[in-house]
Amino acid sequence: MANKDLKDRYFVVPTQLMEYLEGINEQYSEGKANPGEKRMLNILETGKISYPQMKRIKNFFDIYEGREENKEFIMNGGERMKKWVDGALKIARDAIYNVKKAKQRGGQENAFLKTHTKDTSKNPTKVRMTRIDKSASSNNLENNKMVYESVERIKDLIKYNKQ
Prior knowledge:
The chain contains six helices and four strands, in the order βααβαααββα. With 163 residues, the chain is mainly α. The longest helix has 28 residues, at 78-105.
């Protein structure tokens, strides 16, 4: 679940988890620049994890099929990190959902949809109406084949029919 409201958010790693990660780093680090160690060092240095990084960590744990004793699993924080990431993301996502749900219950329509932005490059005052494309051989309504009819053409048809 991608969530635009969380994309710039950082999650502060709890002190107990930081201490656990420091112990893992001291025990298993080889000083190489592999992705697990880079991530571990970045977390230990900053004490926080960005939302995109949290999603990557969650994805690693979700698709990991190896054993929990493997170094790769441990260098990503092991079972403790997995539980914390799952919980933190769930809490953050539920908070966003609950705010939007409350807005919806309060009467705001489309609380879960992005706000619409108009394309100002086109003429915003031009009125267009749909008409059925009669040139197609199949049933146009069933196939959702519609074309836009200009207002001027409709006015001309009205004048023609009145005469």
